[in-house]
Specification:
9 helices, 5-stranded parallel β-sheet, 3-stranded antiparallel β-sheet, 8 strands, Rossmann fold, single chain, about 220 residues
């Protein structure tokens, strides 16, 4: 049983590392963003989700927590889970503790220059939403998804001016969690100071840190 969360600024690799670690730990990687999109048509939760997403605002915490709690109750999460990009605030962290106590929080420490370079070169599949990078995670055929053959595109929020704004939002709302989990003794800092470090290399570093801290065997 291992319950983890990935913490870090936009472009630090949370989703990429979580999906690669999940098979190794035999637990699901859980993205609240994907969960909310998947529950847009839910008769009870859907209206609030659509309202928040379609207006460009935030989905209320009570809805996010309800969707997450439902997901973590599924059979594949009995051995644990890896949360991708959640919690985002101390309030969410406190709510999470009521039904899921984290064993470790992986804090990805990445300089702003690396984040801007990474996100500026990030590409996403227009069909299956798979993530690639023109610097270190290229597709076999340029501009075409390896998984489904969909066309790749650059998200509008992955342009340098948008990235800087996203980092400001992160610093204001999410960065306080670094101290929060540090005081709880579950934070593990994983640095990355280079743009082109292969994802599997970082995953190996994270797995070693988890073993060294005896979070996993």
């Amino acid at each position: 049983m291992v319950k983890l969360a990935m913490l870090g600024p936009p472009g630090s690799g949370k989703g990429t590392y979580a999906t690669r670690m999940a098979p190794k730990l035999e637990v699901p990687a859980v993205s609240t963003g994907e969960l909310l999109r998947a529950n847009r048509d839910d008769p009870k939760l859907g209206p609030e989700i659509r309202k928040g997403q379609d207006s460009g605002g935030l989905v209320p915490d009570k809805i996010v927590m309800a969707v997450l709690q439902k997901r973590l109750a599924e059979s594949d999460a009995k051995k644990g889970f890896i949360l991708d990009g959640f919690p985002r605030t101390i309030e969410q962290a406190e709510s999470l503790e009521k039904f899921a106590k984290l064993d470790a929080v992986i804090n990805l420490v990445v300089p702003e220059r690396v984040i801007i370079a990474r996100l500026s070169s990030r590409r996403q599949c227009s069909k299956c939403s798979a993530i690639y990078n023109t610097l270190y995670l290229k597709t076999k055929v340029e501009g075409i998804c390896d998984k489904c053959g969909g066309e790749l595109y650059q998200r509008s929020d992955d342009k340098p001016e948008s990235i800087k704004e996203r980092l400001k939002v992160y610093e204001k709302s999410t960065a306080p969690l670094i101290d929060y989990y540090g005081k709880k003794g579950v934070r593990i800092d994983i640095p990355c100071n280079s743009v082109d470090v292969p994802p599997d290399e970082q995953v190996a570093k994270i797995m070693k840190a988890l073993k060294d801290k005896r979070v996993i065997q």
